Amino acid sequence: MSGRSEERQVIAYLGLGANVGDREANLREAIALLDAHPGIDVRRLSSVYETEPVGLRDQPRFLNQVAEVAVTLTPEALLEAILSIEAALGRIRRTRWGPRTIDIDILLYGDALVDRPGLRIPHSGLRERAFVLLPLHELAPDLVLPDGEPLAALLARLEAAGGPEVVKWQTC
Fold first, then answer.
1. Domain membership flag for residue 70
2. Is the pLDDT reported for residue 157 higher than 60?
3. Is the pTM for the entire model greater than 0.85?
4. Residue 136 domain-assigned?
């Protein structure tokens, strides 16, 4: 990925998902656009996983991936960049949890806790979504969330409870 200067960077984790059109190409293009942004440096990518949709079930299966990024942007500026990339890739917000060409969520932003209208970090669905926890754990198995809970413990609890199947699609 690109080599940018090391000015006050924060490590963040982004969840990406796509279930409309060429899902793999949509993920690749979103990652390329993220990495092309001057305040975002894509460092590592998880494998790609396929999963059933959450919420609105009558739609195509998703491909999901997590990206580790180093950012020099504030959480709000990162969200603005993400929304711009989603729009550039044809994301139209019509139905909550509906089909989408691309969805990019800020899962974690360093050890920040943010709770503002339109922006919650850690992401509000992080703890319940195997399609996010599994690829996040792949990248950062020893990660501890800002509230002190180890990621591995969250994933183990979720796996023990059962839930939607998450299948490795490919390794990037």
1. yes
2. yes
3. yes
4. yes
Question: For the segment 127-155, what is each residue's pLDDT rounded down to a tens digit?
Answer: 878 889 999 999 999 999 998 999 999 88
Comparing 6-15, 38-47, 130-139, 157-166, the range with the smallest average pLDDT is 157-166
Q: What is the DSSP letter of 27?
A: H
**Residue 130: enclosing H or E segment and its boundaries?**
helix 130-139
Tell me if 60 is assigned to some domain: yes
d(CA 7, CA 4): 9
**Residue 103 sits in which domain range?**
10-170
Q: Which residues are catalytic?
A: 91, 100, 103, 105
Q: How far is CA 133 from CA 19, 80, 145, 152, 166, in A?
A: 19, 24, 12, 9, 10
CB 109, CB 120: distance < 8 Å: no
Q: Distances in Å between the alpha carbon of 51 and those of 1, 35, 57, 93, 132? A: 27, 25, 11, 21, 10
CATH number for the domain including 115? 3.30.70.560
Tokens 């550039």, residue?
Answer: 88
Is the preceding peptide bond at 164 cis, omega within 30 degrees of 0? no
Q: Give the pLDDT of residue 98.
A: 60
CA 95 to CA 91: how far, in whole Å?
A: 11
In-domain check, residue 127? yes
What is the tally of structural domains in the chain? 1
